Amino acid sequence: MGRSVDASSTVLRPLAQANREPGERAIYWTVSLLHAIARPLTRLDWRHQERLPQTGGVILVANHISNVDPIALGQYIAFSGRWPRFLAKASLFGVPVVGAVIRACGQIPVQRRSAAAKDALAAAVVAVEQGRAVVIYPEGTISGDPLLWPMRGHTGAARVALQTSAPVVPIGQWGAQQILYGNRLTVPRLLPRATFRLVTGEPVPLEDLRALPVTAAVLAEATERIMAAITALVAELRAESPPAVRFDPRPTHEVSP
Question: What's the whole-model pTM score?
Fold first, then answer.
């Protein structure tokens, strides 16, 4: 059974006890600070943390619904025993103070929509091979689906998975959109308190694909399996059925018939 935690009434284990993985001091203090800020403002419904591998390289894939996601997902992963290494957009690394902090925390910059994006995937491969827990949003950005269901995924997570043979573990999340909905630039809504609901799934089955040459078709199949696994978890958290067709953010003329 999963474990639900209500931050308003339940005392979590101290981070130093919940997470014994070696990591930078900066990431420990950053997670501690963000958790101290978020805890009185949110409720937590954390399920199946035991499914998150405690050692070794792992690729954690999750849906993206809000700019608040890194806080919701980051504390869930950290209190589940691993330090998250996010693929974060490179522009954040140039923001005063913020950039210095995320760099000190070992996060990985991504030059989105450029040829340099492959450098981030190479860095992700190295991190996984070093035994890190690398977090990738396969959608590449906050979902464009009007109801924030997981949309069409990019192949980055699949590429890293097929290069490293590391397990791909899906995480579904729901609740951060109560504070900031999607990409909307609004004042954060703190009341009523949002409930961050997160659940870890079983590893995505990719072994049969790893035996094949890495072609566009193989990457597409691996990506669809990853998105299907994430979507099933989100549907579980929302207690709703997802759309029959996944939202595709590409312009109509780019979509194959």
Answer: 0.91
